[in-house]
Design a protein that fits this description.
Mean pLDDT: 96
Distance between the termini: 73 Å
Largest sheet: 7 strands, mixed
Radius of gyration: 24 Å
Number of helices: 15
Helix content: 25-40%
Structural class: alpha/beta
Shape: globular
Low-confidence stretches: none
């Protein structure tokens, strides 16, 4: 594959970025440079924002029933090109083909839900709030909207936002992650085939400079973001200071709680997938297992065996269950956190930190790791590792598990494994996280539910997906109306 410089997509056409500086896009399994991504400047963002603003009035006046026809076509194009898109995700991100296909299925699911916008966007009407006076509320689009997407799901996260923004009548700018920009290049080639009005969708590659330009540009009215908590806080603060509506998904430390009455075989299989799937690089990764009562020794043995036997390799190869982490720098960071854990007293049951895969000497490979006996007060029990490392903590009761979970700064997800309905209900009611799983390892909401996050895992009011997305991408207008009979023209 030629290491070309990726273009931006602005005003219905591909164009070279104004920026001259680029970064290599590297296959994390092979070290091969796949392309170069331009680090677009504020001038590039300005071109996209101006194009989107120019297209807005015509697009918002296009009937919702006509707007969704483009989404129906997009759904078919995504499905027809899923094999190629999945391959691109695996090439630039490293996850397995099966994981890439699953990611794209979630993207398509959001397009399907957004196609219901003629009903989802309906307002309210009250007749005769006073004699002869009616009042109603309508939803109108916000304007130019932008999404700043992460590297870990290069094919899915943009679709938490893009189809809803368009269906609601907004115009759109996407900035993909500079480490994984190639999937969205192909998606925008498909969008180009739709023959949308020029300027309705735009793509600007880049890094922090492009991000800040989006946050500062006066024509951009709404911003969505997924990434680390530190950057989410920056995005939220800067966008809000500039008068924009914003939702910013941050980091996580997702605990799974295992009770003595849980089905051990099922629980182990699900927790292993939740902890090591996508090499642990997802905001819903199960990075901490809390065992309650007498199940600890059994679960420790079972999960250590599952971690040891997980097949690690090139994501394109059949039978591979886990690919590399995204970069050598990420691998080094994860190794440092593991060393911190052992310094705090944790016992390394399974050490995959220095693993290599035969034939892929330049890949950023690790194997699953399991650390037992984490100190509840230690840094490693609280920090987001974002890698294939599962930490274990033991407590004596559900109350103690809930106390630990609720004392943390993150609130993205928590899961419970049990056969007890009473324990499940207590957990559902009391756990302070936005997504709850019961006998589920990754509580990823369907597209018609919001992707909820609490505490430092989310900054904003309305979440991505479903009705929350419709509310975020529309603004309400209330009309109070009187038509006196004597004003009516007589014909």
């Amino acid at each position: 594959m030629t290491a070309n410089i990726l273009p931006n997509y602005i005003d219905g056409a591909w164009r070279a970025a104004v920026a001259l500086e680029t970064l290599p896009v590297t296959n994390p399994a092979t070290g091969e440079v796949l392309a170069h991504v331009p680090l677009s400047t504020a001038a590039d963002v300005g071109l996209a924002a101006s194009a989107a603003q120019a297209a807005f009035d015509g697009w918002r006046r296009t009937p919702a029933t006509a707007r969704i026809q483009f989404l129906f076509k997009l759904k078919r194009l995504l499905e027809d090109n899923m094999a190629e898109l999945a391959r691109t995700i695996t090439l630039e991100n490293g996850k397995t083909l099966e994981e890439s296909r699953g990611e794209l299925a979630r993207a398509v699911e959001n397009v399907e839900v957004a196609c219901g916008i003629p009903m989802l966007m309906q307002g309210d009407y009250s007749e005769d709030i006073a004699r002869g006076i009616d009042e109603y509320m309508i939803r109108q689009p916000v304007g130019v909207c932008a999404t700043i997407a992460p590297f870990n799901f290069p094919g899915m996260i943009a679709f938490w936002y893009l189809p809803y923004a368009l269906a609601c009548g907004n115009t759109f700018i996407l900035k993909p992650a500079e480490r994984c920009p190639m999937t969205m290049q192909r998606v925008f080639e498909l969008l180009h085939q739709l023959e949308l009005p020029k300027g309705v969708v735009n793509l600007v590659n880049g890094g922090p400079v492009a991000v800040d330009a989006i946050l500062d540009h006066p024509l951009v009215r709404a911003v969505t973001f997924v990434g680390s908590t530190a950057v989410a806080r920056h995005v939220y603060a800067r966008a809000a200071a500039n008068g924009k509506r914003v939702q910013a998904q941050g980091g996580a430390k997702n605990p799974v709680v295992v009770l003595p009455d849980a089905d051990l075989e099922m629980t182990t299989r699900i927790v292993a997938d939740a902890a090591f799937g996508n090499a642990g690089q997802r905001c819903l990764a199960a990075s901490l297992a809390i065992t309650v009562g007498g199940v600890h020794s059994q679960f420790v043995e079972a999960i250590a065996d599952a971690a040891t036997n997980r097949v690690v390799g090139y994501g394109m190869d059949a039978g591979v269950e886990m690919g590399p982490v995204i970069t050598a720098q990420s691998k080094t960071r994860i190794q440092g956190l593991m060393r911190l854990g052992t310094a705090e007293g944790a016992r390394l049951l399974v050490d995959g930190s220095t693993a290599a895969v035969k034939g892929f000497a330049n890949g950023s490979f690790m194997r699953p790791s399991v650390m037992d006996g984490l100190s509840p007060d230690g840094e490693i029990a609280r920090a987001e590792i974002f890698g294939p490392v599962l930490g274990l903590i033991h407590v004596e009761s559900v109350d103690a598990a809930l106390e630990f979970i609720n004392s943390g700064k993150y609130g993205n997800m928590a899961c419970l494994f049990t056969a007890s309905g009473a324990s499940a209900r207590k957990f559902r009611v009391e756990a302070q996280t936005g997504n709850i799983g019961i006998n589920i390892g990754v509580a990823a909401p369907m597209a018609f539910f919001p992707f909820s996050g609490w505490k430092d895992s989310f900054f904003g009011d309305m979440h991505g997906q479903g009705k929350h997305a419709v509310e975020f991408f529309t603004q309400t207008k209330v009309v109070v109306e009187r038509w006196p009979q004597e004003w009516t023209r007589k014909f």
